[in-house]
Amino acid sequence: MTSNPKERAALAALDLVEDGMKLGLGTGSTAKFFIEHLGQRVRQGLDVEGVPTSKASEELARANGIPLFELAETTVLDLDIDGSDEITPDGSMIKGGGGAMLREKIVARASKRFVMIADVSKRVQTLGAFPLPIEVIPFGQAATIGEVRRELERLGYEGTDISLRSAEAGGFFETDSGNLVADLKLGRIEDPKALDEALTMIPGVVTTGLFLGCDVHQILATEDGLLNG
Ligand code: 5RP
Questions:
Q1: Which of 88, 121, 134, 225 has its CA 20 to 30 A from that of 127?
Q2: Are 90 and 126 in contact, with CB atoms under 8 Å apart?
Q3: What is the third-level CATH fold of 132-209?
Q4: Do 6 and 220 touch, CB atoms closer than 8 A?
Q5: Would you state the pLDDT for residue 1?
Q6: Rounded to whole angstroms, how far apart are CA atoms 17 and 34?
Q7: What are the residue ranges in the chain where pLDDT is below 70?
């Protein structure tokens, strides 16, 4: 058994996968472990299909021989396995550290069961220490960020540091949908629902990294084992 908590969580999630399932394939370093181990099982004969939540996960899934398909109007996925940047005991999350939150939300919504895999450091009592990513369309982005700033002030977040995410290769980071990501350093989010509603009402904001009200099964791992299990 591995001592890497992310891999341990991924392996625990693999136990939930059954023959014939349609799967959501998450994004990030924890989801990467899951996809790689799933690929091994597929090569041993497991019959599953997946919908990747990012181009990076699509490439990885293809390289690991996992059959892929597209979400259609009537598609219902059996199980979505994805990581998280922060998660509270009641399952509220910040996601989008990898900038994939839009596809991740669509896939989570289409799934009968949503399982979050992470190392235990992602467990928090209050969201917000991790900067909240929001996806913003490029047109009028400066005006959109101005509106975001005004909404934050109206909600009591004074002088929030907001930065457009940079790409490793230079320039701005671009999401798989061709949008930008702004990271909001809020420190502490007292009312995630009110914040999410206010931000998503702003034209130009596509979505936020807040995942709220999901019926999420949490698999949190340490170097020695699973939390609560
Ligand atoms: C990507 C995500 C990831 O699930 C999140 O950033 C966690 O990543 P990691 O498993 O690398 O810690 O939301 O958009």
A1: 225
A2: no
A3: Alpha-Beta Plaits (3.30.70)
A4: no
A5: 76
A6: 11
A7: 228-229
Dist. CA 54–CA 157, nearest whole Å = 31
Catalytic residue, chosen from 104, 153, 174, 223, is 104
154: which 2 tokens? 């109206």
* Beta strand 216-221 pairing with 114-119: parallel
Report which of 187, 228, 206 is spatially closest to residue 86, judged by C-alpha positions: 187
- C-alpha dist (Å) from residue 51 to 24, 25, 71, 80, 155: 5, 6, 7, 9, 37
How many C-beta atoms surround the C-beta of residue 28 within 10 A? 25
Predicted pLDDT at 26: 98
How far is CA 204 from its chain centroid?
Answer: 20
For 5-124+213-221, CATH gives 3.40.50.1360
Burial of 7 from C-beta contacts in 10 A (0-12 / 13-18 / 19+)? buried
Is residue 170 marked as binding? no
Pocket around ligand 1 at a 6 A CB cut-off = 26-31, 82-85, 95-101, 104
Could you give the 3-state DSSP secondary structure of residue 4?
A: coil
